[in-house]
Amino acid sequence: MGERTALYQQHLDAGAKMVDFAGWDMPINYGSQIEEHQQVRTAAGVFDVSHMTVIDVSGDDATNYLRYLLANDVAKLDASGRALYSAMLNNDGGVVDDLIVYRLDNGYRLVVNCATRMKDLKWMAEQARGFAVAIEERPRLAILAVHGPQAIEKFCATLESDKIAAVQALGNFRGVELGDWFVARTGYTGEKGIEVIFPQEQAAALWDKLLAEGVKPVGLGARDTLRLEAGMNLYGQDMDDATSPIAANMSQTIAWEPQDRQFVGREMVEIHRKLQADGMLPELTGLVLEERGVLRHGQKVITDKGEGVITSGSFSPTLKHSIALARIPVKSESCQVDMRGSLIPVRIVKPNFVRFGKKVFE
Amino acid sequence: MSNIPDDLKYASSHEWVRIDEEGNATVGISDHAQDALGDIVFVELPEVGTTVNAREEVAVVESVKAASDIYSPVSGEVIAVNEALVDAPETVNSGPYDDGWFFKIAISDEAELADLMDAEAYSDHIENE
Hints:
heterodimer; A: 362 residues; 33% strand; B: 129 residues; alpha+beta; six-stranded antiparallel beta sheet; 4 helices; globular
């Protein structure tokens, strides 16, 4: 038996098929992954992502510590509640993890991946030497993500009236502390929505209220196809400790300015950037197969400039054909994928396929 | 628990076989197999008239999770395929034992049917897999 979130029984009651996910018993779907995917694209779905790791960082040096630890710059978070996506790099310029960092009234909150929990905590502790910071894991917090065009409206319908205005006022990548709840406009689907981080004892009550509003439970299966359509990376698949963020479509998330900010891995990723400009480091791009068949993780890619690999591939329920993220030589113009022994031509596109329910690539 | 009808024969690779009045074999995949695959998004069928051997790959299903070969449980000639699956592959998920059938075979060696499992043996097979 694996670890369970506070909503384990709710998942079973909703008909979940449970699978092991990095040591946790988690819902992969509640019947049909495709229906759950469409639910998020067209209405509203709720994901229990309480298995993810919440880490609070506080203390006099919290800002300076995170400016050193993360490739993006928390100095951009000029108000409480604001959120930032960042890579956490190692000394070789590989990606230890990707995460969201929120500025709180008192310090910062990081949400990191579940499978990388131990490694991240160890790395963060090592990097904290010399900084006056407290790093505290918050395992008793639940996280629900409510996403879809109707998500905010339906989430607000479950709230006490004094909280509604604060949530409605939130812009994208902004959050607000409401008592012991933290509510933010962040997510992993390419749709509007909120993530709420709150005491796990209250999770079942909110879950039941959301379902009563017509929000449907969505499993990790649909979470993966939604994030892939949105062109978002999955740690361990699209990048890892041995992958440069430059080769993982994460250059835009690195704060290069100010140039005198030293952050872990900076020297290496500056070299990687030059290497890529010279065609010596691959890039992560999108692939589209408009015919039958499904592109899959690990399939070999052959372009006019050399070889590559599919890092994430699936059927896109929104587009009704297959899409993928692939690491291939830069400036590749034509591309074929080795699918079960046959070389199938595919189209190279920007790694972003669907936003707000609509196709976004040319 | 997955649904395992008593009147069918099963292969260890999770296909089922139904013998009709003319002695032909209709082949599909079990409820257990469709559930394990998840939502099916493409089905590739053999051509009518193809001669196939037992345990030979004759069709492919692609689900959101994986691509999977479908093996013919018996030898013979493909006499019909379920073209409706090309446009509605999800039928395999919703009706694995009826509208979700894959192909029909005119059996060339009836003795091969003895190699297949009955419902009880298949149920044990799933449990021990």
